[in-house]
Write a structure and sequence with these properties.
alpha/beta, Aldehyde Dehydrogenase, Chain A, domain 1, Aldehyde Dehydrogenase, Chain A, domain 2, 2 domains, seven-stranded mixed sheet, 23 strands, 38% helix, 23% strand
């Protein structure tokens, strides 16, 4: 059985600090076949501490490295990632299950953040004010925090970490990554690419693990900031414990993303995009559309059109070029999703398309759930209240745009939302009325480009900073403001016991 280890001090670490029989492992599955393909070491507190100490030592030199040198490393890293898109995509597909084209798209969106970070000399420019008082100048600049950590989810094993570490490292920090133990291989390969790009040993580390590793990160006094993407309960836990230990925190939680469809929308256009947004990556996206709110007379036509598309989705192994949707990540995820579909039916919803029990020829033991459309859903149902994280689209029916906005705002999540309409007035009312962080107008998955920042509201974000973009630079740095005077020796400035004022 292949064993996946850690990356510390610029090299692969094949065993736990505990060593031998004391090492804990977790299975890594092939979701398409249902077979275990590897085991991953689970870091102990000592393993995390070793990585953090290595990072702290590396930070001392890296933080003093010139912006020009940092940019050269970032450009080299960008070229290496770009040259290995297919290899990274294959790793993602084999451990996550998503289809190769989707995996390539994930790597591409990560590349965009690396390209943003290549402009670090411009992004870290400070401010200068001449002669703010007689003979006094004032200027500001930003410095890195030190050792920072990222705790990232299984659904985007390349893209989500790349929302974090390119910006953090370009700003002069050392970065410790704790990826999901379900699909750890891409992070180890990325570590090798960083080394090839010329990043000094210790600046980027990978520790695989579970709650023990997470708690070690949250409690380590050498870690200055923690970035997290995952479920809302864990995001809340991360925020509370890291904040209590004096760390900066950006913790992105769960989502229940709604798309409303107005009667004036092009039904075929909306249905095409709803199906792609709900069933792409088997619904395992924090920006997936999991609830459609059909307004007025749009409902029947929307349900019919989306159901037709759901039934036509080609489900199979992510390695199969003909597949449009792969399996979900684990057997446990498969069971949870099918249970929630069943609860919807039990509570009075109508299963327009039922994806339970799907069998893919040749992959009968795989973790597959077929595209599912649940009609006539009500807000009190579990299929609506819970974040399903699977290929399930719930359809709710309301009479007006204002009712749709009120429904969305009543939901505890506030990650993303969308509207399908040909009315500019309705779209403007929607974008101003919803209490959501990211909004799409005839765009179902409104993930911002890298030069903007990604993040939601309400229970979808804990902390005050979004990831990547300008807010990412702000999160991974802190400001210094310098007030300087260089008095003439012949005419020294007067000192005063009064509070200093400009003159």
């Amino acid at each position: 059985m292949r064993t996946i280890g850690h990356w510390v001090g610029g090299r692969a670490v094949g065993e736990s600090a505990a060593g031998g029989e004391g090492s804990r492992t977790s299975p890594v599955w092939n979701p398409a076949t249902g077979a275990q393909q590897a085991q991953v070491l689970l870091a102990s507190t000592g393993d995390v501490q070793a990585a953090v100490r290595s990072a702290a030592a590396a930070f001392e030199e890296w933080s003093q490295t010139s912006l020009s040198r940092r940019a050269k490393v970032m450009f080299a890293f960008r070229e290496l990632v770009n040259a290995n898109v297919d290899r990274l995509a294959e790793m993602i597909t084999d451990e996550h299950g998503k289809v190769l084209s989707d995996a390539r798209g994930e790597v591409q969106r990560g590349l965009e953040v690396i390209e943003f970070a290549c402009g670090i000399p411009q992004l870290l420019k400070g401010e200068y004010s001449d002669q703010v008082s007689t003979g006094v100048d004032m200027f500001s600049f930003r410095e890195p925090l030190g050792v920072v950590a990222g705790i990232t989810p299984f659904n985007f094993p390349v893209m989500v970490p790349m929302w974090m570490y390119p910006v953090a490292i370009a700003c002069g920090n050392a970065f410790v990554l704790k990826p999901s133990e379900r699909d750890p291989s891409p992070s180890l390969f990325v570590a090798e690419l960083w080394k090839q790009a010329g990043l000094p040993d210790g600046v980027f580390s990978v520790v695989n693990g579970d709650k023990e590793a997470v708690d070690a990160i949250l409690g380590d006094p050498l870690i200055a900031a923690v970035s997290f993407v995952g479920s809302t309960p864990i995001a809340r836990y991360i925020h509370q414990h890291a904040s209590a230990n004096g760390k900066r925190v950006q913790a992105l939680g769960g989502a229940k993303n709604h798309a409303i469809v107005l009667p004036d929308a092009d039904v075929d256009f909306a249905a095409d995009h709803l199906a792609a947004a709900a069933f792409g990556s088997a619904g395992e996206r924090c920006m997936a559309i999991s609830a459609t709110v059909a307004v007025g007379g749009a409902a029947d036509a929307v349900v019919k059109a989306v159901s037709t598309r759901a039934e036509a989705v080609k489900v199979g192994s992510g390695r199969d070029a003909g597949s449009e949707m792969g399996p979900v990540i684990t057997k446990q995820a498969q069971e949870r999703i099918t249970r929630l579909i069943g609860s919807g039916a039990d509570e009075g919803a109508r299963l327009a398309v039922d994806g339970r029990g799907l069998q893919v020829p040749g992959y009968e033991q795989g973790f597959f759930v077929g595209p599912t459309v649940v009609d006539e859903v009500r807000p009190e149902m579990d299929v609506y209240r819970e974040e399903i994280f699977g290929p399930v689209l719930s359809v709710l029916r309301v009479d007006t745009v204002d009712e749709a906005i009120a429904l969305i705002n009543a939901n505890p999540y506030g990650n993303g939302t969308a509207i399908f309409t040909n009315s500019g007035e309705a779209a403007r009312r929607f974008q101003r009325g919803v209490k959501i962080g990211m909004i799409g107008i005839n765009v179902p998955i409104p993930v911002p480009m890298a030069f903007y920042s990604f993040g939601g509201w309400k229970d979808s974000l804990f902390g005050d900073k979004h990831v990547h973009g300008p807010e990412g630079v702000s999160f991974y740095t802190r400001a210094k403001v310098v007030t300087a005077r260089w008095p003439h020796v012949e005419h020294p400035a007067d000192a005063s016991f009064s509070f200093p004022t400009s003159r």
